[in-house]
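1st attempt posting a full record on here, be nice pls
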Amino acid sequence: MNDQNDGQHLAPTGGEAPEVGQRTETGDEAAPYRQSLRFPSGLALRELVGETGGHLKVIGKQLGLKVGQRGDQIHMTGKAEAIDAGRAVLLQLFAVANEGHSLTPADAERACRLLAADPGLELLGLYREVISLGGGKRRLSPRTATQRSYVQAIRAHELVFGVGPAGTGKTFLAMAMALHALSLGEVKRIVLCRPAVEAGEKLGFLPGDLAEKVNPYLRPLIDALNDLAGYDRAERLLKQGAIEVAPLAFMRGRTLSEAFIILDEAQNTTPEQMKMFLTRLGQGSRVVVTGDITQIDLPAGTRSGLVDALAVLRDAEEVQVVHFTDIDVVRHPLVATIIRAYARAEALAADRAEARANRARDAQPPRRRPAPPTADPAHPDG
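the predicted structure (as tokens):
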């Protein structure tokens, strides 16, 4: 999410459009082409380039280009495809900066990744999808097209599932939308919950009273709340009862009306728990369910409530499901690399297991048909 505080959101600069120069040959086999772009001087150009050219260095590293600045011109040297990609990234990031948005090296890295996956994506459209958090002028914007679809789905539907790998902003954006709804008076409270048993651990074996036992499971939700609302405001909302953080088991028997309810780590619910949770929905409430079906910590043989719900509700028009991928990872760029590496390893392991099963089946000797019964000479009829 693009975090926009007052000090980070610049005034729109307007001005002339960038000029794109002709692509020329360099005679260098390793970097055969060169192209220059001329940008209007001002704040937007400084945002695009970054401190000491930091954003240009990121773009060059991501795309395999040599990128440098001289005055109001940015020069690129490299292969034709890389120059085309670099030109698109620079022009789109300039449009973002020219509308008054600040840029970071992470924005530059993400722009390269997103436009490589979807060249038709308009980055500025992401920055224009603003979530105000109340309690001041802080606001957020989605960072990827899927995040934008997720935010729009939450605005339009009473039940939304956000499914995908860690680091894609599923819970963080749901929390932001909950604070947004609370600040506008669309709901009277926020309820945050998680399954309290994960990774094979049982509460009875953990030290302390019940509150101390469940706190480690709920801590990530509290941390996200503190990040978004600020510690003082978060504490005030918790004490007032405007925000409740509780284990999933505490939802049984309740009807939650005029509330924004978030169930996190839903892959670790059972089908019975998921059904219990979804049927807590009361008048004027919204529910967001988040989870990663590749990270199920339930005992072997136990079906995930998230997997079950996605199958059971797949034809319900009122329910929206948004699937995230490694392209949507907004943590450290290495997280996306790790997710892709694990996905490749798991696919390779599945292929090997299938190959072993096929070899074992082929190695089995064919079944011999039993010989037909022979005729008994003592009986003419056989």
